[in-house]
Specification:
By secondary structure, the chain is an alpha/beta fold. The chain is built from eight helices and five strands, in the order H-H-E-H-E-H-E-E-H-E-H-H-H.
């Protein structure tokens, strides 16, 4: 996976995801706590995915595709979907080894070639869509029988969260421009563990495992970010 230098002809989307990538993955000096929490999350997800031994994986909302590129380098055939072409343009530039197929479009409207997959995953995306129930159902239908769906999302019960939970937020169609937003500042709700598991069961999935994976210590909250320096 290559580190990419910025170019003058990039779109605003590409430059946006490049800046995120520098802070999250490459430059630990700018926001050490955020850099470390992102590395820890990717290492955790690498362990989870590799333990399932999938041969073909679909990632929905891949952004800069850090996890996907690392999985591809481990021999897993990746299909990466994102609604923002500029994100995919940047992710392609980082690709060095392994099999990766890039798909641009809205997952709820796409007919993704290669389905069903051994594993379908989506990380910090479900809180950006107005129909999470339809989103999870589509993830499930893209997964082969006996395969797995892996979803991550912010925790509504986290002590720093001030947003309503998914069930408390009401009709998400009342938030124009919310659908497919790309940053945390655009969130209007968060999920409780029960809400997320409930969507999985409603989509016909069996919830095999659910867990929390980041603490305030690593996230740098309560001013602990200063200790990371």
């Amino acid at each position: 996976m290559k580190r990419v230098e910025p170019r003058s002809d990039w779109s605003a989307e590409t430059r946006h995801v490049y800046e995120h990538d520098q802070v999250e993955w490459w430059d630990g000096r700018r926001m050490p706590h955020y850099h470390r929490s992102c590395h820890a999350a990717v290492e955790m997800l690498l362990g989870v995915v590799c333990s399932l031994r999938p041969r073909r994986v679909l990632d929905v909302g891949c952004a800069q595709a850090t996890l996907d590129l690392l999985l591809a380098e481990r021999g897993i055939a990746m299909t990466c979907v994102d609604i923002r072409r500029g994100f995919l343009d940047y992710a392609r530039l980082r690709h060095e080894r392994g099999t990766v197929r890039w798909v641009h479009g809205d997952f709820l409207e796409l007919d993704v070639a290669g389905a069903p997959f051994d594993l379908v995953m989506s990380h910090h995306v479900i809180e950006h869509v107005t129909r999470p129930d339809a989103f999870v159902a589509r993830l499930a239908s893209s997964t082969r029988p006996g395969g797995h769906v892996l979803i991550t999302t912010p925790n509504a019960h986290y002590f720093r969260n001030r947003l309503p939970s998914y069930s408390e937020a009401g009709d998400l169609g009342h938030y124009p421009g919310f659908a497919n937003s790309c940053d945390g500042g655009d969130h209007v709700f968060a999920f409780t563990r029960a809400e997320l598991c409930g969507l999985g069961v409603a989509a016909g999935l069996r919830v095999a495992r659910h867990f929390f994976y980041e603490s305030f210590l690593l996230a740098g909250h309560l001013k602990l970010r200063h200790l990371h320096r």
